[in-house]
Amino acid sequence: MAYLNTRPTPHVDYHWLREFMFNGEQIPLMDMQRGIRKPAKLSGALSIRTTYTKPGAAPPYMDNTGSDGFQRYKYRGTDPSHPENKALRRAFEDALPIIWFVGVAPGRYEPIYPVYVVGDDPSQLEFTLALDETQRLLMAPGFVMDEAQRAYAMRETKQRLHQRVFRSQVLLAYTTKCAICRLKHPELLDAAHILPDSHPNGLPIVPNGLTLCKIHHAAFDNKIIGVRPDYSLHVRPDVLEEVDGWMLKGGIQGVHNTSLAVIPTVRKARPSVDRLEERYAEFLAY
Questions:
Q1: If pLDDT is split at 50, 70 and 90, which confidence band does 8 have?
Q2: For residue range 178-220, what is the model confidence (pLDDT) as tens digits?
Q3: Where does the pLDDT of residue 55 fall: very low under 50, low under 70, confident under 90, or very high at 90 and above?
Q4: Which of 72, 98, 174, 215 has its CA at a distance of 20 to 30 angstroms from the CA of residue 47?
Q5: How many angstroms separate the CA atoms of 185 and 214, rounded?
Q6: How far is Cα 176 from Cα 186, in angstroms, rounded to an integer?
Q7: Are 269 and 179 contacting, i.e. CB atoms less than 8 angstroms apart?
Q8: Burial (Cβ within 10 Å: 0-12, 13-18, ≥19) of residue 183
Q9: Are 56 and 268 in contact (CB under 8 A)?
Q10: 3-class DSSP state for residue 143?
């Protein structure tokens, strides 16, 4: 499974998942018709899937992060004894690692691996997932988390799930190009937040994101470049007056009073005007 964690692109598609080979045998890693995949030869589930939700639409299942910092995954339907729920429960009982494919675009998925099922709550029709080994240990029987450990669990869920999915969705929305300079090397691109995730409205959703190269991301975060609500760019006056090399002249000063070079074609995926307005006000006040 190392391939899933070292891909130069941030997602996999169903064709690759369907053609996966292990020891000369084709074993599809995901079932397009079911959320929980259990090959006949395995005792427990191999993978789970969360379908892609378009910007502004409601997801079909209300998976969420609990107050303990752990992610929840809803049962298939309302019957705890449904074969898919039983397969995932078996993975829980046998402490089996699974793969979580999170939809980031139609037919494209961000793979999270390894994931462990560490809790089963029939009353809420949901399983609890651990996204790394430390989270898994925090949910060991009899272990009582303190506030610092709960904060760690929440931080890891954000980094290993929400931020990875956010990055994939934002880069796809911007066709894997920097919104300012069009650089298209994914290893040099970031999914920049318009409002930080510490802000009440700083959600990891595409309208709160911009694909920026490393230089322009740093310039945006350090209030060297501001983005106006009309998508035009403003370089801080003192930086405009500096004399330096070609990077400053062409890469920073040269974008002043131009507009974003790339914006999503889907209107609901475009940068939120309200968020840009708030962020730009902070830029002007700096």
A1: very low
A2: 999 999 999 999 999 999 988 999 999 999 999 999 999 999 9
A3: confident
A4: 174
A5: 11
A6: 6
A7: no
A8: buried
A9: yes
A10: coil
